[in-house]
Amino acid sequence: MKSLWFFDDVNLFKVLCPHKFKAYKANHDFDAYKKKDYIYFEEDSANKVYLIERGKVKIGYYSEDGDEVVKAILTRGELFGETAILGESKREEFAQSIDNTTSICPIGVDTMHDLMRNNQTFSFKIYKVIGFKLKRLERRLQLLLFKDTKTRLVEFLDELCSDYGYDCEKTGDKVIHHPYTQKDIACLIGTSRPTLNILLNELKEEKVLQFSRKEIRIHKNIA
Predict the structure, then answer these.
(1) Which one of 46, 51, 62, 196 is at 20 to 30 Å from 169 when CA atoms are compared?
(2) φ, ψ (nearest 5 deg) of residue 206
(3) Which of 24-33, 129-138, 144-153, 190-199 has the highest average model confidence (pLDDT)?
């Protein structure tokens, strides 16, 4: 089973969290957030990056019409706010907890730069994570701009397969245990929850997949 928590078979939290480093451990704490709490807003000062120890965080922004646009929903072990490392001075997006037990590891930009200067492996992994996230965001924006909703869903399911899927030895199906609600998925593919439910049921009737609250099973003859 592969997920972002095991990026290149390395636990991101073990690699990136400053409290794992002796020089920073004594002064390092975790921040707790409830559902709908904001970690930061658009235009806030960008002086930290964040690593999710537990829970889920929504990254997005508001259009000129006031509509919320969701860029990503992140889970345990994922990094966000990382553009601060690259010199961003103010946030161009918001970050909001969407779980009642979200725990965040905040890392000051100066601390991150120190760690990157002193540890080449650490630095390499940070840049690799950033590159991976940018590539994924670019792909998702292309889907939203150029593909119909059903195609966006099918390609998102393919992405879930890569991150959370494994082969069922008995049937050969792809089984996906994922952390997203239907509302999360609907936000990520730019549709409504009712429309998503209709599309999932269509795919079920076409014998492409079966789904429950936390599991999607893609049948062998399709996967």
Answers:
(1) 196
(2) -80, 5
(3) 190-199
Helical (H) or strand (E) element with 90: none
Structure tokens given for 208: 């492409």
d(CA 106, CA 128) in angstroms, rounded, equals 20
3-class secondary structure, 206? coil
Residue 198: partners with Cβ closer than 8 Å, 6 or more residues away = none
pTM of the predicted model as reported, rounded to 2 decimal places: 0.73
Query: Per DSSP, what are the bridge partners of residue 61?
Result: 69
Query: Helix, strand, or coil here: 33?
Result: strand
What is the rounded CA–CA span in Å between residue 123 and residue 112?
A: 9
| Amino acid letter, 120 | Q
Beta-strand ranges (E) seen in the chain are 6-7, 10-11, 31-33, 38-40, 48-54, 57-62, 68-74, 79-80, 94-97, 102-108, 165-167, 174-177, 209-211, 215-218
